[in-house]
Amino acid sequence: MKVALFVPCYVDAFFPEVGIATLELLERLGCEVDYPLDQTCCGQPMANSGCHHDARATEALYAKNFAGYDHIVTPSGSCAHHVRDHMTAIEQTAEVQQVRRNTVELVEFLHDVLQVREFPWAEFPHKVGLHIGCATLRGLREAKTSEIDEPAFNKPARLLSAVKGLEFVTPQRPDECCGFGGTFSVFEEPVSAKMGYDKVGDHHRAGAQYIVSPDMSCVMHQQGCAQRMGLPIKFIHIAQVLNGARQ
User: Fold this and answer.
1) What is the pTM for the complete model shown?
2) Domain boundary assignment for the chain
3) Angle between the N-to-C axes of helices 94-102 and 77-86, in degrees from 0 to 180, rounded to the nearest 10
4) Which segments in the chain show pLDDT lower than 70?
5) What pLDDT is recorded for position 158?
C-alpha cells in the first residue's frame, strides 16, 4: 500500500524521532511511504487563533503536496482533525476535498485501515498512562468520552494491548484535557499550566512510569509540567512504542 507521510511542524522541529518511528512502523507493516519534501505546516496554528487568511498559503501548499494519495498519514490527531474538519481557508475544489478526506491520524490508519492487531517486535515493560488529546478523542472519536453514554471503545489502547509487558494504569479523570490547547497555552498560561499539573499529578498518583500518547503536542506540555513538578514520569509517542522502543 502506497501512502504519504505528513510530519507536523512541531514534530519535525522538536521530536524528529517520532517522525522516524512513524516511517519505520509503516514500512514494517508493508506500506510504501512517500514523503513530499516541500511539506511544512497544515495551517492549524493560524486557524485556531482565528487568523484564517494567514492559514491560506500553508493550507494550499498542504493540498498541493498531498494531492493524489489514497492515504495521508500523520502522527498527530490535532493536525488530522484540522485538515479534515477545518481546512477551509482555501477554495474547496474536488482535489482539496479529496486530500481532506484522505488525511488520517496514525492510530486511525493502523486500527481502521490496515486493521493491525499484532506487533510481535514490540515490548514495553512499564506501567503506562494513556493520554488521548482532545482533538483526537472528541474530534476524531478514537475512544469513548465520559460525557457520551455509549459502549466503551479505545483504539489507541487496543493497539497498545498487543505490546508485550505493557501494563495500563488509569488516572481518576482519564479523558480530562491536559491544558495545552495550542495557542491557549500561550494566551492563558496560568490556566493551562494548572490543568497540566493536575493531569500529570493524576497520572502520577495512578502509578504511571510513562505517559504514552498519539498527540505529541500534549506530551510536550505535560513533559514540561512534570519537570517543573519534579515528577519522575517519562513521555513517549505511541508510534515509538509500537515500533519497538523499550524506553
Assistant:
1) 0.94
2) 2-113, 127-242
3) 150
4) none
5) 98
